[in-house]
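Operator note (shift B, R.M.): manual run for DUF2568 domain-containing protein requested after the automated queue skipped it. Running by hand, logging everything below so the morning shift can see what happened. Input copied straight from the record, untouched. If output looks odd, do not overwrite the archive copy; leave it for review.
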Amino acid sequence: MRLIEGLRFLVEVVAILGLFSVSVIQISWLEKFLFFLLAVLLILFWARYMAPKSPHAFKKWHRLVAETSIFILVSGSFWHLYGLQIGILYLALSFGSLGLLYYFQLE
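Run finished. Output pasted below as returned.
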């Protein structure tokens, strides 16, 4: 079970680091700003609504919808920034960890 939770943590960290790394990628300043803003907004959203000890934490299907939406958004961002293979790899890992978490009821 720790392996599944570790994979989930890794997926979350990679999402934020991948979006913050736009500062070193050769894309327009507007794209850099937008992806940086997206990373900040994801951190704030996750801290308020997804953190287990937050008083505003989503439960059950609200949480599942939010997680699914976030992982799709980040996968699409990775596809745009790093290419199709990275986007698909992130999508597979994120949905794999999400499926395992809900299958083993670790949420």
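Quick read of the result: The first helix runs from residue 2 to 20. The chain has a mean pLDDT of 94.
Leaving this for review. - R.M.
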